[in-house]
Specification:
Number of strands: 46
Largest sheet: 5 strands, antiparallel
Shape: globular
Helix content: under 10%
Distance between the termini: 74 Å
Radius of gyration: 33 Å
Length: 746
């Protein structure tokens, strides 16, 4: 009761009176347990701050493209805007929307006689005549604000699609007061109506003429630009930027040279699904030095207005060393360590010459190296060089021999070549105490079907589903003893159930990490004398997707007591539940037989022909049909347990909102499951989305949300599906199973 009296007294005071009664009300202060918005009335720093959200719930951007070709003739499309005041409550001033101005123009920028756009407030009153109440932050005290004040305003812009689509542009100006940033200028956004969406992609993204000598002719190179959108693309400019590279681009009867661009005349257009080729011709060179240029194609593709291709010649050799570092761990005094492999990889388009391989002079004593097989790099510049062809791999083997008990050592193994500066990898090791105990050691290498796998260092990185060979052959035992027992274990990321194969009690085992995250592998050993190592060896493995977009589904089924079993049991019963991962392109909703089964007012994208990537359409052709980098792929369909199911997209289309879905195909008698979705972008170690879904039963369809690459600055990575609940989930029960049909693209 005391608190209520304090608030009611303060609410009736003038600004000066507040100051005068502050001491008189001090006795009330201990009772005040929430923010009193009225207390800010006397502050000089009171202000408002606008938050403007669009119809997807994301911060509004400057321009929106409306593909009217996807809308039925005569239909109305709504675009809602939400206005909020996000200033902290204790210093908030009202935000006022004073006027909304709509300016609609045609393709030539002229005002139109019959607008296709209208605007109204939440009550249906036209924006031009609406009376907008003050906007205060959430949880404000109504007694401290103007009459009818709200915590948010909404206005709705409507577009009426005519029988024949016309190019229109709507400029929306919001005149605001209270927010210093927008008090002197309107907040503006534009809606641009198109008859389809133009999209232009130019491939490949880089062109290399290779090694060209002065006066030598080079074969032409071709760049193909294709319209992957739903509307005609207008090519507005083609230019070549370079300091000294004599390259000429020829296309459709037009020519672009260095610093002499094609400026769009005569007009060049590319129809839906059509393409044109750009022939790049290299002129006579005066030098064999490195040359580079940039081909830039400007177009009406609003999502990617400038497509770039890097052009080069005489770039020279490239050398990469893997792994780095080389960590020998603890090595028993009196003998060298087991060799550790270092791979010298030729990563350029020309031969790389290895001039010398040496232990850096500042290194601790005890480090050394030897060549292997046909790979014998020179130890000094006086020896003949070793040349590696492009893509070739040469292995050398480093060793460490401790010099005294308890010593630690650090150093570098360096390789000098004609690929630029000398490259080095770090070396480290220590000597074990002379108590005669075995010393564990782990060496790791990727398993490939042909050739030699990649040697991994602790802390190394691989992609999910990579098979790793783990070898304890480098473990040592005291003189007269041998290592006879090996015990492997692994700490895995949440939701992972990778197992060692074929056995966890052998010297050499395999691990297939299936879920992204960090894996910590441990090895304990015992020798023939029954002595165990003082401590296990540790090996850290980082599993990181290398695609621009990687989506991972796992699930927990309490009724399934063994998540690692697969297939069927002795009675022929499937040994786990079956959930399916979906990734749908926006075009999926346009397929003629799609229904609105989740009742959110638009066709569902799931199981759409071509445009839904799932178990019956594992590798659809999206975007540029000549390039697989924009095609998604499902790499595993798990029908008997916990997952994971992964969908990867090497290079998503810019600005495209892809829908993620999960379908509970069959519980198989194990009861409900809880799915988990992780989304990784740009090969990052941590997911941008890690979301637990609702409990699912057979026939449940979960619309997880929408993702795009790259995520717009200031936007959330996962946009809720239309019709989602307060948790951001749209769950539909009783969703029908997939129909038997051909889901592949024609």
């Amino acid at each position: 009761m005391i608190f209520r009296n304090c608030v009611s007294v303060r609410a009736g005071l003038t600004r000066l009176a507040v100051v005068g009664v502050t001491l008189a009300l001090a006795a009330c202060s201990d009772e005040v347990t929430k923010v009193d918005a009225c207390a800010s009335k006397g502050r000089l720093d009171r202000t408002a701050k606008l938050e403007l959200l669009d119809w997807s719930g994301q911060p509004a951007v400057a321009t929106y493209l409306i593909d009217a070709s996807t809308l039925p003739a005569g239909s109305t499309q709504q675009y809602a805007l939400k206005i909020s005041n996000i200033t902290p409550l204790d210093r908030a001033a009202p935000l006022r929307l004073e006027k909304v101005t709509l300016t609609e123009t045609d393709a030539e920028g002229k005002p139109v006689a019959q607008p296709h756009f209208t605007c109204q407030d939440a009550a249906g009153t036209p924006c031009a005549t609406a009376k907008w109440p003050e906007v205060m932050p959430q949880n404000f005290d109504p007694a401290c604000a103007g009459a009818g004040a709200k915590s948010a305003l909404s206005l709705e812009i409507r577009y009426l699609r005519p029988a024949n689509v016309e190019r229109r542009r709507l400029r929306v100006e919001l005149a605001l007061a209270g927010d210093p940033e927008w008090s002197q200028k309107p907040r503006v956004l534009e809606l641009d109506v198109l008859d389809g969406t133009p999209r232009l992609k130019c491939q490949p993204s880089s062109v290399d003429f290779g090694k060209i000598k002065p006066g030598e002719a080079a074969p032409d190179q071709t760049v193909t630009c294709i319209n992957t959108g739903s509307a005609t693309v207008e090519v507005r400019k083609v230019e070549l930027l370079s300091q000294a590279m004599p390259v000429v681009a020829t296309f459709e009867g037009h020519t672009a040279k260095v610093n002499i661009a094609y400026e769009g005349t005569p007009k060049l257009t590319v129809g839906k699904g059509k393409s044109f080729a750009i022939q790049l011709a290299l002129g006579a060179l005066k030098t064999d030095g490195k040359l580079t240029a940039t081909l830039r194609v400007h177009s009406s593709d609003a999502a990617n207005p400038v497509a770039q291709v890097q052009v080069s010649a005489n770039l020279g050799p490239c050398l990469k060393l893997q792994p780095d570092p080389l960590a020998f761990g603890t090595v028993e005094l009196g003998g060298p360590s087991k060799p550790m492999e270092l791979q010298l990889i030729s990563c350029g388009t020309e031969d790389v010459a290895i001039n010398a391989v040496q232990i850096d002079g500042a290194s601790s004593p005890g480090f050394g190296w030897t060549g292997g097989g046909a790979c014998n790099p020179p130890k000094s510049k006086a020896d003949p060089v070793l040349k590696l062809e492009p893509g070739a791999v040469c292995s050398v083997f480093a060793q460490y021999e401790p010099q005294q008990v308890g010593a630690t050592a650090a150093g570098k193994l360096c390789v000098e070549s004609d690929a630029g500066s000398t490259k080095c990898v770090s070396l480290s090791g220590s000597s074990g105490a002379a108590q005669g105990l075995p010393v564990p050691c782990i060496q790791a290498k990727t398993v490939v079907t042909t050739g030699s796998g990649l040697v991994l260092a602790s802390g190394g990185t691989v992609i999910p589903q990579t098979v790793i060979a783990l070898d304890a052959g480098c473990a040592t035992a005291p003189s007269g003893h041998v290592v006879t027992k090996w015990k492997w274990s692994v700490q895995q990321p949440s939701g992972a159930f990778a197992t060692f194969k074929p056995s966890a009690t052998q010297k050499a085992v395999q691990l297939r990490p299936d879920v992204a995250g960090k894996y910590l592998i441990s090895l304990q050993v015992e020798d023939s004398g029954g002595l165990a190592a003082a401590a296990p060896a540790k090996f850290e493995l980082n599993v990181v997707p290398d695609d621009k977009l990687h989506i991972e589904l796992t699930w927990d089924t309490p009724g399934d007591k063994d998540n690692t079993d697969v297939g069927k049991d002795a009675g022929g019963k499937v040994v786990g539940s079956d959930l399916d991962l979906h990734l749908a392109h926006p075009f999926a909703k346009d397929e003629p037989d799609q229904q609105d089964l989740d009742k959110n007012g638009e066709p569902d994208p799931w199981a759409a022909k071509c445009w839904d990537n799932f178990l019956l359409n594992k590798a659809p052709k999206w975007g540029d049909s000549a390039d697989k980098v924009d095609d998604p792929r499902l790499d595993l369909d798990d029908k008997d347990g916990w997952g994971p199911e992964n969908i990867n997209l090497t290079k998503p289309e810019l600005g495209v909102l892809y829908a993620i879905g999960v379908y509970q195909y069959n519980e198989n008698g194990f009861g409900p499951s809880t799915p988990r979705i992780r989304v990784y972008l740009d090969g990052a170690v941590s997911p941008v989305v890690d979301k637990l879904g609702p409990t699912m039963t057979t026939g449940s369809m979960w619309c997880v949300g929408l993702v795009q690459w790259p995520t717009p600055k200031g936007s959330q990575a996962l946009v809720p599906c239309k019709g989602a609940d307060t948790q951001g989930n749209l769950l539909t029960k009783g969703y029908p199973p997939y129909k038997a049909k051909n889901y592949a693209c024609q």
